[in-house]
Structures
1.
Amino acid sequence: MNAAVRAPFVAALAGAAVPVSGIAWLDQARRENRDAFVAAGLPDTRVEAWKYTALRALGQRNFALGDAQAASRVVDAATFAIPHVGGPALVFVNGAFRADLSALDTLPGGVSLQPLSQALADGHESLRFSLSRHYREAGDAFARLNAAFAADGAVLRVAPGAKVAAPLRLVFIGASAEGDLAWHVRNLIELGEGAELSLVEQHLGAGQQAHLGTQLGDFTLHAGATLHHVVLQQAGIASSLVRRSHYRLDAQAQAHLHVLELGGALARHDLRAELVGDGAGLHTCGAFLPDGRQHIDTQLAIHHQARNTTSISTWRGVASGRGRGVFRGAIVVAPGADGTDALLGNKNLLLSTQAEIDTKPQLEIYADEVKAAHGATVGQLDEHALFYLRSRGIPAAQARALLTTAFARAPFESLPDTALRTHIEQLLLAQLPG
């Protein structure tokens, strides 16, 4: 039986009103997920997926449901601008769509991008499979919470054969409010056969607000589709952000994911991928940099379910101050997934004696003719490399900064977009100790 944390946060949602859509199956699914969340509560550290991330403090807090003033919150568009990256953008503030901050008048041909609230009004039956889902695993508390209370989000569809080279952006902002808020967004992204898309997902926060944000994202790549997905997480320093992204790849589909985790007091990203078609490929690269008292948790689970599929995952962690990082990477090769080629690596640096990183790579193989490897390390900067730089006249602090930045930057060297790669390098330079 799943042990759960019984807490004010959970009790306050018993009987709480879920968003009303007027769509019978959706309203019922929301109520059922709310009731399931309240019944199970928050998972404790005896649940394997939450072993290194305690939720006791979060459970003692109270949040207002949503933000009635989200449409009028003042947000400077410059805060989410990326140099030399323009184009269409869908913007949400405290979980609510903001048409005034979005840019949807330059959508390329073959692309449909709209808020979930509008998509439901236009034709909801195509969304039924995703939005009526129930989450039943012991660690699914925040998925249930999101499924119950998310009233908006992004619905993005790319037509078969359409090629979208310039990035589209999804922007999620936690804006200052009068109290602590809980907001939730639900994203549905679908690429038709042979389609190509570049997508940038930004999470930002302002001020010292201690909001809780949750996000569920479903990414469906049909046969031969290609997705380049960049995630830049810079949530507010006092906020909590819990996300789940699920990728489903059909035959010959390719997904390239680059993730930078910088913000939040508590930030968790649960990445799940199913390679269900022959020849599908997944490449994940990322870095997480907890500082101060930040807690950043990345959970990666890749399931190879078809023949000749490939996954390559390269992740780096850098912890300073009293920051704590968590990385769990699991690869499962199912029966019949012959010819799988899977590689997972996680290297980590500790920059202070009080910093901590817990890493756990896992590999399960139930097929033949498989090539797979995984590994993880936790350590400090190479003293020989430091000595070499010092012997060339580089001061100690600068030498450490050079080595640390190069270490954290490595997962993003494969990012083909020069503007995005440069932007990430600037974010790393600003975050890492100088």
Note: The CA atoms of residues 218 and 433 lie 35 Å apart.
2.
Amino acid sequence: MRPSCYLNAVEIGDGNSLLYNGFSMCIDVVPSEIARRLVSSAEKGDFSFLMPAEKEHLAKRGHLTRLTARGEQGEMRKLARALARKEAELNRRSSSGRMLSFILTYGCNLSCSYCFQNDVREASHLSSTMSEAFADDFFRRYLDKLFPDTPKDRLRFILFGGEPLLPRNRGTIERILRYAKEHGIYVSTATNGVMLPKMLDLIGPGEGKIQGVQVTLDGERMFHDQIRVTRSGAPTFEASIEAIRQVVKAGATAFVRIHLHPGRLESVQKLVEYLELERILGHERAEIYFAPVHSFHAKDISHPDFDLFSKLLQHVALRQKKLPIQNFDCLEQIMDVKTIKDWSQPRYCAVSTGVHCAVDSRGDLYECLEEAGDRARRIGTLSGGKIEYFELRDAYKKRHLENRPECLRCSIALFCGGGCISQKRTQGGSLTKQFCLQNIVFVGQTLKACYLQRQAAKAVVGDHQ
């Protein structure tokens, strides 16, 4: 008997921890000292600190196993294969949850030093803007071919860029909103917010409006205004905050994306305090979530930074009663999973699932927004009323855990889904290898937030009884 290779633990307070197993998907609350000793490699095989009933329970839950490490990994491969087949079958039968991103332009009014589009933006063929005629032609000849089995009211449109809310895009946006209103389609956008006042009449809660608006912040005012500036170098913090205020006032939902920069978590802390003071954090129409910039890796997190990050994530989660982690929000349902058979294999994002597609002004199709503009990364293109798909589309479909030996050895593979496909490739890897960023940290903290939210909800119910 030994601890499972897929055993993880995260402290939840009051001397307790969550044990969560990446193979059995079982989660249990245990004293932190027991959790520490179970995951400590120095004490594998010595279970004298456990009562017989405790040892039996942990074995039943998969936290302890008699399988060798190789045997356990073999079972994980079988499980990954079964889950991949289940996911493929669900995708074939499901007609819900399809997303289409319109990349209206690659141009932008800001000059952020870390922007992932900086390289492609310089290319001359990316200077064009999606025209009204293109939008009309797309709806008439291509949309039904992209999502042939999806009812229109099950689609979601995303306005993307560059900066989608540039004034020159207004006519095309109005065309898209008109079509969305006719077919009951939800529309959202990702914007820096600077030009939002010129588009405010297009934002609101009803059909035919932009109902969700994502605005990005890089920290408190001083740090944000150092790295997120206009082309002329002017600051943007106040404009971004004002955009958030205007979105919620208009009755739409503001999604506040807070970037995490290595060594800058104190700036994030000041920003969270500011958002709470301004009543943005906790507002019914504002949702805050954290996102790492590309250079943010687990090895970059010092112990003090880890403690601060944990504190901030848990505070925001409890304050807004929603998880502040976008790629791992699926983990909320794990608390209700009774057996592994109830769990659908997660993906880090929609790439390779057929759920999402992006189209730009040239008619090029992409699955990953961070690869948009790099024509070598197209999955297809539109021409003459037909869609031509490329080999990359089929290559993406093979990107599941069964084909990824590095992930099969990872203790959080079924929670994580394998990491960012674009970042792994740009770091010199391949489509089938993982790019973890700080996913182990994020998964643990997300599960902790799920648990603490449920405990808080139970406490409220108890107070009212």
Note: The radius of gyration is 23 Å.
3.
Amino acid sequence: MKLIVLAGNIQKKLNFLNHAISSRSQLPILGNILLETKGDTLILSATDLEIGIEVSIPAQVETQGATTVPAKLFTELINSLPEEKISLEVKNEALEISSKKTKSVLQTQHRDEFPALYEEKGVEVLRLKTDALRANLGMVVFAASIEATRPALSGVLMRKTPQGFLFVATDGYRLSLKTNVQTEEASHAFEKEMLVPARVIREALTLKESGDIGIFVSEHNNQIIFSQDDIILVGRLIEAQFPTYEKLIPTDISAKATFDREEMLKAVKTCAIFARETANVIKLSLQKEKVVVTAKTPSLGENTVEVEATLTGEENEIAFNARFLLDVLGNIDSSEMSFEMTGPLNPGVFRIAGDSTFLHLIMPIRT
């Protein structure tokens, strides 16, 4: 393999590529990056077997080939070079990296030891503008569990409905639901629901802001692939039964408060300081023209913040984990939100004012 490429073009891709490198893997080859050429393109790949990332970079290829190099060393070396043309050449099982004034030699491992990221993309089942992907999945994915002990809760359910796509995630203590998501036309009719690892979606949300993202499914390999221009992100669909979440959503309410999201977020942040020593408990008291946010630690003190609100129904109060409140208020891009409840021991529901396609449910804490 021999080629010339701009170091700056590789540098732009390495940070994202390294998201798929695991330092704790039992397989040493997974600490490497695969370099291979196809036509006039240099392709870099990395995987930790949970996710895989492939990036393509234009290059002047003289000799086709492939090899793997240690990810950390390669990244540090490339990032130390000026943004100029460099030469990459495999000689005697080593990779020579040369610029105008430097020459480095890295030991390689044969590409045959490196696992294939995917065999085929499969069929395109969904296509979204990047901003639409962030807006819709960004308000759902944070509710998925980060624990691997219950696989069904570590993913986001995607389902086609007559009104559009539905996305839902839950960790057993809270639930985010977004419905009626309109998409660009896909090349294949989407019929089956998918349970997509939340980690894959979180990585997809970091893709560049412009352009479309195509979502492909390979049923043969049970893989989902996010594709945007010169980047491919690969994950394995979760084979587990997602909870019957519909039964958790309250059908009636006794109180509803509408408030400014930013003002409520600041209030919860302030009270969260006092909640750290008492299991992170924050109390919301719904009153006639306000919501009173309170946190109390007997050994330290207490904090109370009033947030202007419009109340419909009965005055009431309820307690939540502060982190859950910060997550929902911080991941929603809306000026006005509402909170609905039926009692202090029933789930509370947050909604975007004037938007019936989103809800976020949180289980209360008994005080």
Note: The mean pLDDT is 94.
4.
Amino acid sequence: MSSALYALGQWAVRRRRLVVVLWLALLVVLGGSAKVMQRGLTDVFTIPGTQSQQAADSLSARFPQFAGASGQVVVTAPTGTTVTDPAVKATIEDLTARYAALPHVRTTASPFSEHVKGAVSADSTTAIIAVQLDVDAAKVTPEMRAPLVAEAARSTAAGLTAYMGGSVFMPSPPEVTMAEGLGVVVALVVLLLTFGSALAAGIPLLTSLIGVAASMTVIFAATRFTEITSTAPFLGLMIGLAVGIDYALFVLSRHRDLIAEGNSPEEAAAQATGTAGSAVVFAGATVGFALVALGVAGIPFLSVMGVAGAVAVVGAVAVSLTLLPAILGYAGPRLAPKATAEAHHAARHTGWSATWVRAVTRVPALTVVLVLLGLGAMAVPAKDLHLALPDNGTSSPTSTQRLAFDTIARAFGPGANAPLVVTLDIVSTTDPLGVVAEVSAGEGDARHRVDHGRHAQPGR
């Protein structure tokens, strides 16, 4: 492999203009393809084989009228009144009727209906109007959602406080924020301190960004052929930046060492690709296979995330083995360490790094203890980490779906935003009404009342 990589690096550095042009052309083609082919990301998370998914599938198959997206209009009475006051109740009933007349609304349920339970809070200050749409949650467009939100806003202006929530709103996808930008800045500062050269520090960042750009366009273009969740490109972005910088550093550091030893910049770039490039290929293959192996879990969105991360790794490897040697060729002798070759070898034994190594190895047991204490301190925030799929509780604090989510949690208590739906296959039982009554009352073990082929599946 080293010989093949050496030949590749030698070709890339000698044909550096062609390599750069090819990469620019590739980015243009991939970017255009992504713009034309992409169908957008999805935030529908399914876990086949789980009881909740079986319940949802059963409900959709047997009760298609309930298969569409569900919305919740959370209404809070004005201060000093309750939702059961005649005037307020009449306003809420009128609001329910107005929602029933909106496009794509299949049915609505008043919180005061005799067939609805638990839609009025214990203190009677808040009520929930259920709204059932005739399209799936993944197919709800902003145009469909707009009149639903507008109707709630109109009610708020009339004196009630109303917010629209529910599955008509998809979970807010992760976004690139200042935190990611700050991470890149920190990486640049560290590289500047390490190399003492702005050129040497900037090259790994440049190549990693190019690799990320290429992989992101591939991921978005792939939405033409499969559903990709919004978390997948975000994971690819983070992994692509991380491994892109690391892999470039493998080759760049070796390149600078070879120049310090007296090799020409072109030969140093070729040798660095042949030697450090082997480590890049091995590391990339290891990380890529590990990410693709997420598919072993059999969870579709995890599999997609793993493949997206692997695509980012492949992009980082490709850039490090082709474009990077070309850039090193353009940089020429400017990447040479400031010290001479002799001083370079001497620095290995007298520099700050040598001092650091001597310090940490003088008392190994103490070093191990200090490292473990440091890792423990950094792990303290993990004790308050809660893992879950995104929902309206992760949306913007000022969004209507987040305000609805918070109002329900405050008025109805913990768990109100995650009600359980229990589906029962009562075909084979001799007492279907009794089974349903027991499940509704939470009494006994209703599953044992269903004879052959019993199926009681809870789901969210």
Note: The chain has 15 helices and six strands.
